[in-house]
């Protein structure tokens, strides 16, 4: 999402944030209802095109939202009404914005309960735990399996082990992937959680466990480089002989021995 759509999403988030702050733990319910709106838009091409058509008056589209979604929480109806009044580069961007607000709502509920950091950590740990479980990953994404069955599998795997917000995100990622793999959605929401804590995420891969002193030093270096505190998600990969691989958003810093050897081979071959 870029340009006009991104600006519209930013404005919608600013409007919705006070609502989420006031909602507290109810935010998770608002999130679930927003996800239901996403499903409705995904399933109705005519509704999707109408609500994203810039040629149609914004108030008229908001009236249609009130008519179609009248049974939902008024706070959800107001949020979606605000979205359809804005300008979007495509209908897909509008749907993505509704989904984004849904994840915001779930994370806000965790924040209200003092569990946002826990949720962020659990989302990361779930993605790492699935690295070697190909069959489970496929089952959570298999389009031949109904969405509710995939959501049930996610719940069976995680019920009683994670925070309610984490479970809600996992269920949603399995039930409605919207073109993303299960772990990709969890990674996306983990980044949203980090942003809500006003911290970026640095994914660090090391050949061995890092000591707390090393973690603190690395965190300080990255904070100086990016101008803000970063959440360090560290993964140990024994295949790495030495050095670190650090990814922050689209930035990748690979100082591992293997990377240097690969670079040397490329230079020799050129």
Q: What percent of residues adopt helix (DSSP H or I)?
A: 55-70%
The general outline is: globular
Ends distance: 37 Å
Secondary structure class reads alpha+beta
* Rg measurement, Å: 21 Å
Query: Regions with pLDDT < 50 over 5+ consecutive residues?
Result: none
What's the number of domains? 2
- Tally of individual helices: 13
Protein name: ATP synthase subunit delta
Membrane topology: Peripheral membrane protein
Family: Belongs to the ATPase delta chain family.
Pfam family, one: OSCP
Task: Detail the topology: elements first, then pairings.
Layout: H1 3-23, H2 27-43, H3 45-52, H4 58-68, H5 74-85, H6 91-112, H7 116-129, H8 134-139, H9 147-158, H10 164-175, H11 182-196, E1 200-206, H12 212-226, E2 230-236, E3 244-248, E4 251-254, H13 257-269
Parallel strand pairs: 1-2
Antiparallel strand pairs: 1-3, 3-4
What keyword list fits this structure?
2 domains, alpha+beta, globular, four-stranded mixed β-sheet, 270 residues, 66% helix, single chain, 13 helices
Provide an overview of this structure.
- It contains 13 helices and four strands.
- It has two domains: 3-194, no CATH class; 200-269, no CATH class.
- Helix 2 (27-43) packs antiparallel against helix 6, helix 6 crosses helix 11 and helix 10 packs across helix 11.
- Strand 3 and strand 4 (251-254) form a beta hairpin.
- The two termini are 37 Å apart.
- The protein is globular, with a radius of gyration of 21 Å.
- 66% of the residues lie in helices and 9% in strands.
- The chain has helices at residues 3-23, 27-43, 45-52, 58-68, 74-85, 91-112, 116-129, 134-139, 147-158, 164-175, 182-196, 212-226, 257-269; strands spanning 200-206, 230-236, 244-248, 251-254.
- The chain has 270 residues and is α+β, with helices and mostly antiparallel strands.
- Strands 2-1-3-4 form a four-stranded mixed beta sheet, sandwiched between helices.
